[in-house]
Amino acid sequence: MRQHAQPIADSLVREVAKPAKQSLDEVVRSADLIDYTAEEGARALGAGELLTSDSFPGQTRNKLCLVSKVPLGVVLAIPPFNYPVNLAASKLAPALMAGNAVVLKPPSQGVVAGAHMMQCFAKAGLPKGLVNMGSEIGDYLTLHPLVSCISFTGGDTGIAIARRAGMVPLQMELGGKDVCIVCSDADLDLAAKSILKGGFSFSGQRCTAVKLVLVVKEVADALAAKVAAGVAKLTVGDPKDDVDITPVISDSSADFIEGLVEDARAKGAKFLTPYRREGNLIWPTLLDHVTPEMRIAWEEPFGPVVPIMRVDSVDQAVAHCNANNLALQGCVFTRDVNRAIAISDAMETGTVQINAAPARGPDHFPFQGFRDSGIGSQGIRNSLAMMVKIKSTVINLDKDSYARG
């Protein structure tokens, strides 16, 4: 993948309008992930366990249990359009290292990059048929009797898959409404910088994007001004030019984003930057004085729109966070580490970042969502553990022979 990084990155630019540098970074990061998975897998999967029966009350030492890890069979990997290479690699690498075969169902937009990656696996010498690329989804793949595990990243489709999957192990990350809580003692420059990066990187089309800023009123004006100044400097245009804001994935996605923006406008939100759209290119939009009555206070725009909601207290911010059915990640900005941990403990979400924007990596960290944001935990070690079954082989020694020693 490192040898063929540029053509894969070029495909990402053309297919999903990802800026050129971010596209190349995604491919290199994916190669790093595969390397790490191979090393971690050799350690984690190579360690067996030996149990003796006399460690349980009333038992003699004539039974030995060999505990081993065996492959599940066939893993169905379904990555999303926004990271069609990295999130495919995060599923493929653990599945293969655990001894499984894989069927990759790439996203419709991102399929060429996926095909390039499949060529890399072939060139690396993997046996024919071990990794396969499928074009169908629906019930055919997700309910196929040979599928032993489903690893899915995406949206509401994952909930439908989970309802039908039955006894098949599931690993699902289904999006989030990642809140950013800014306390009165926060470093506002750091918070503003993180909101810009977290909210507008890849035009906000990230499950870990900042999707709602909850700021206490005492510092709201100052924070809003700093973020607005940063938004004004963002560049907009063609992804080949490596600009900050590129077109969102489709016209229908742009229509959905615009619906959220117009709902907020009709209900009194203040626009700190003008809303502008040309086709599926949406200029970065910053909304202030967002209220709970607005859809954008709850729904995930998946675009370059960041809403700011002013709260009376941190408790109010945490309550809003916990009331949402989406609970992937969140972040907290405060100079008081004790306060930060207390807020994190109160937030019912999969990951909380302290003084930084939400982020998936590093890829060996656990990554999970609560409620409708997912099932299971990702991260290299967690994925390796999920891609195997535990098998016990019990050796029964003759009691009399064992007693005579």
From TrEMBL:
The keyword Oxidoreductase applies. It catalyses: D-glyceraldehyde 3-phosphate + NADP(+) + H2O = (2R)-3-phosphoglycerate + NADPH + 2 H(+). The keyword NADP applies. Keywords: NADP, Oxidoreductase. The active site is at E173. GO terms for molecular function: glyceraldehyde-3-phosphate dehydrogenase (NADP+) (non-phosphorylating) activity; lactaldehyde dehydrogenase (NAD+) activity. Residues 1-392 form the Aldehyde dehydrogenase domain. Its EC number is 1.2.1.9. It is an enzyme of class 1 (oxidoreductase). It comes from the Eukaryota. Belongs to the aldehyde dehydrogenase family. PANTHER family: ALDEHYDE DEHYDROGENASE. This is NADP-dependent glyceraldehyde-3-phosphate dehydrogenase. It comes from Monoraphidium neglectum.
